[in-house]
Amino acid sequence: MITEQVIKKLITETIKGIDISRLGIEDNFVEFGLDSLDLASILMAIDERLGVNIPDKDVDQCSSIQGIVDYCRNKEVAL
């Protein structure tokens, strides 16, 4: 199961130097200071490591840790 902790760990491993303790689960990545390349790196890591492909049309749903967790859980249910 994909949880908040799993996504936080993945973000920490993907985005070097991020202080994940300052990023709340509802915080928007862009407002936190991440750019589109950071988000693309996170989404690629989710695809590669967790097997969840997030198409471009759904990226807006994944603008926070909670958004990613919810999206992944919905994908699991749909399978």
UniProtKB/TrEMBL annotation:
Origin: domain of life: Bacteria
Pfam families linked: PP-binding
Domain (Carrier): residue spans on this chain: 1-76
Record-given protein name: Carrier domain-containing protein
